[in-house]
Amino acid sequence: MKSIITALTGFAATALLWVYFRPPFGKNVVRLNTDERVVALTFDDGPNPPYTDRLLDILAVHNVKATFFMIGNRIERHPETARRIIAEKHQVGNHSYSHPLLGFCPPNIVRREIEKTDMLFQELGITEKTVFRAPLLTRFLPVAYVLAQQDRPHISCNVWGWDWMTQHPGKINRTVLRKVKPGSIIVLHDGKAENKDANRWGTVEATDQIITGLKQEGYRFVRLSDVGNW
Ligand SMILES: [Zn+2]
Fold it and tell me: Measured in angstroms, how far is the CA atom of residue 192 from the centroid of ligand 1?
């Protein structure tokens, strides 16, 4: 009897953990819904001048549109860079207001973090509901719950550039090119959460190389909602 109770308790604990960390409802988008040679470049944690501006210059040279998941308090600090991203027809995404470990916050904090950044986008003239990505991809139960209430998918990714570990452009480029498949959502970082001094020249240079390399392999670049349909 005792062993049955132990087994049942263990099973219940595992099930609860599973539901917390892998909520079985709502939508978690890890790739674009296409088999064509199309990828989405996404940049997290900006705006972060001058790196974001240099990145915008490079995207313009290649005539590539990307998606920028911005942090609210960085939009407040650098509204001119956020405005430039919007003016140059890139897509904007909500990456919370202050980049906490959102998956471990209660739903009221999660809601406030998302809504504060929504308001900032509204002030910048964005009228449609933006896409959302949780800091450190912590789409745990409280985040999934709030997003489900808002009928909003969580945008994850399936290719990491590991540019938070290295700023060596060649390494970032090789890591991305090795993993890309049709429909990949690639995540890179033009900023670093709260770190004002984050140097992102490696990411900027790597982006130039990644675009050149993938174009040679016949890939096109889209914003997330150019494919949408998730
Ligand atoms: Zn982030």
Answer: 7
Total-model pTM: 0.94
Task: Identify whether 168 is a catalytic site residue.
Answer: no
Per-residue pLDDT of 37-68, as tens digits, reads: 999 999 999 999 999 999 999 999 999 999 99
Q: Which of 44, 53, 163, 208 is catalytic?
A: 44
Q: 19 in a domain, yes or no? A: no
Domain membership flag for residue 13: no
Tokens 């995207």 label which residue?
59
**Catalytic site residue 208?**
no
For position 84, which CATH number holds?
Answer: 3.20.20.370
DSSP 193: T
Distance between CA atoms of 51 and 7, rounded to whole angstroms?
A: 54
Q: Which residue in 90, 95, 154, 189 is the catalytic one?
A: 189
Give me ligand 1 centre to Cα 100, in Å. Answer: 9
Q: Are 172 and 187 in contact (CB under 8 A)?
A: no
Does any domain span residue 123? yes
Total domains in the chain come to 1
CA 171 to chain centre: 21
